[in-house]
Amino acid sequence: DSPRTIFSGIQPTGIPHIGNYLGALQQWGQLQEEGHRVIYSIVDMHSITVPQDPAQLRENIFDMTACLLACGIDPDKSILFQQSSVSQHAELAWVLGCKATMARLKHLPQWKAKSGSKEEGGVGLFTYPILQAADILLYKASHVPIGVDQVQHLQLAQDLATTFNYHYGQYFPLPKAILGETKKVQSLRKPNSKMSKSEADPKSRIDLTDPPDVVREKMKKAITDFNSSVTYDPDTRPGVSNLVRIHSACTGLSYDEICRQNEGIETAKYKFVVADAVIAKMDPIRTEILRLQKDRGFLEGVLREGARKARDIAEKTYSDVKKLVGF
Ligand code: ADP
Ligand code: NA
């Protein structure tokens, strides 16, 4: 296997929840241990496709930096940077956008979901998959860790790379998805939908900064069903199965092992077993986030150094692109 260039981005939307960690960030930390070139971006330019309070956005960027570091992203092994610090993202997005069609973008899920397909939706919301393609191609990424929800956007990046190569000469490698094992975490309040920051009820998710008593309280309120036993059957028992999945992701135990170990335990009691597993896994991360949040100077330094390394690559790519395009 030749060395990969791995790129992924996350929006600075506040403190991540355990779904973000178990479904994405944990894997981000592992990928940097495998000898690849790994680049992670806090994609603040994507954030402003929906309304943002400027002071809050600024805080969120530092919070996300602290969280990524606490989750194991090591700035000596990965390039960790803020997207808006590298102007070539916007420049390459323009070039790629000139090769994208309205018809293609209209069918992408982010536009359908957030704009309600209304023509009054922001132009940025419509075009941001092009910016995502630029994020990836600017580093000539060969692999992109994504959730299943992002597959169509990665296909757009592949299509734009193909179109660019067709018009201007073979230049961009086609980025492949790393889907990993999908550790999808469901909402604690609506177990048929995924745990998400966009759900209004804060009890629906466990944030990485929730202290142990809050974790126990939220687990206690998790929606299950009237069958008081521990089994794994996501179709008929989504609530308790979600708890088993969280338990498994936090301990490495299989669903079978968990169900066997907790046979005969009432669901109400089992919730505290899961809470303890979550606390054991996540509390060191919480402690580290709190420590890093107090060290603004350190976080600024990490982002500054990351931007410098990212810019080195981005400038090279974009200067090649300019020549190919005829600028
Ligand atoms: P949210 O839906 O909370 O806004 P994002 O869309 O910002 O989360 O997702 C950030 C990353 O976390 C993505 O890679 C996404 O696939 C992953 N992710 C988000 N929610 C979950 C979840 N409930 N379970 C597993 N992974 C998730
Ligand atoms: Na989302």
What's the layout of helices and strands?
Elements: E1 5-10, H1 18-31, E2 37-42, H2 44-47, H3 54-70, E3 78-82, H4 88-97, H5 102-106, H6 109-115, H7 123-137, E4 143-145, H8 151-168, E5 176-178, H9 212-220, H10 238-251, H11 255-261, H12 267-293, H13 296-325
Parallel strand pairs: 1-2, 2-3, 4-5
The site of adenosine-5'-diphosphate has 17 residues, from helix 1.
How would you concisely characterize the structure shown here?
This protein is mainly α and 327 residues long. The protein contains 13 helices and 5 strands. The site of adenosine-5'-diphosphate has 17 residues, from α1.
Molecular structure report:
- The structure is a single chain.
- This protein is mostly helical.
- The protein has two domains: 209 residues, Rossmann fold (3-Layer(aba) Sandwich); 90 residues, Tyrosyl-Transfer RNA Synthetase (Orthogonal Bundle).
- 54% of the residues lie in helices and 7% in strands.
- The protein is built from 13 helices and five strands.
- The strands form two sheets. The chain has a three-stranded parallel sheet.
- Helix 7 crosses helix 8.
- The longest helix is centred in the last third of the chain and has 30 residues.
- The chain is globular, with a radius of gyration of 21 Å.
- The two termini are 36 Å apart.
- The model has no long low-confidence stretch (mean pLDDT 94).
- Bound molecules: adenosine-5'-diphosphate and sodium ion.
- The site of adenosine-5'-diphosphate has 17 residues, from helix 1.
